[in-house]
TrEMBL record:
Residues 33-142 form the Calcineurin-like phosphoesterase domain. It holds the Pfam family Metallophos_2. Belongs to the metallophosphoesterase superfamily. YfcE family. This is Metallophosphoesterase family protein. It comes from Chryseobacterium endophyticum. It comes from the Bacteria.
Length: 187
């Protein structure tokens, strides 16, 4: 059985103005923080793996540590542009990177793997984009139109009802895209 792997971004714990900026449906900062923690833990178990694609918290370090201690799972952080507080608690993360090329066992693929580029920012092209490699990003809070011809999309909480998305959900989304290999043989 595959380990449960999840992707998410842009929680902005402790950032009151994000409610207004991103039109989040929360009445207060406290309600937003608690609901984001609840939805995280509804999906993610203690033994699950989470790739957080940046902007965990804009709160102070002590506040951020308390939040991180309440979240389930082994968290790999792909740094965003608001990581000051999270980086004061590095031992909470299984890894901390600017960019990561993840390989997941995928028996449906010819080579038995699915490669995924993880980065805080959306890219128009990336390593292997012409060979079916996926790219997941955050940062844009759902403001970038999805490109149905590209194997990339925003995994930020603003795009997924404030929940992390599973590898299986990502796979379903990618399978619905209208991507075709640019160098495929023509019939």
């Amino acid at each position: 059985m595959k380990p449960n792997i999840f992707f998410t971004a842009d929680h902005h714990f402790g950032h009151e103005n994000i409610i207004k900026f991103s039109e989040r449906p929360f009445a207060s900062l406290e309600q937003m923080n608690e609901e984001l923690i609840k939805r995280w833990n509804e999906r993610i178990g203690e033994n699950d793996t989470v790739y957080h694609l940046g902007d965990v918290s804009l709160g102070k370090p002590d506040f951020t540590k308390e939040i991180l201690d309440r979240l389930n799972g082994s968290i790999h952080l792909i740094k965003g542009n608001h990581e000051g507080a999270a980086l004061t608690y590095p031992k909470r993360f299984a890894s901390i990177r600017d960019y990561h090329e993840l390989r997941i066992d995928e028996p449906e693929n010819g080579n038995g793997k699915q490669k995924i580029i993880l980065f805080h920012y959306a890219m128009r092209t990336w390593n292997g984009s012409h060979r079916g490699v996926w790219q997941l990003y955050g940062h844009s809070h759902g403001t970038l139109p999805d490109d149905e011809t590209a194997l990339s999309f925003d995994v930020g909480v603003d795009c997924h009802n404030f929940y992390p998305v599973s590898y299986e959900e990502v796979k379903e989304i990618m399978q619905r895209k209208k991507w075709t290999p640019p160098f495929a043989p023509r019939n």
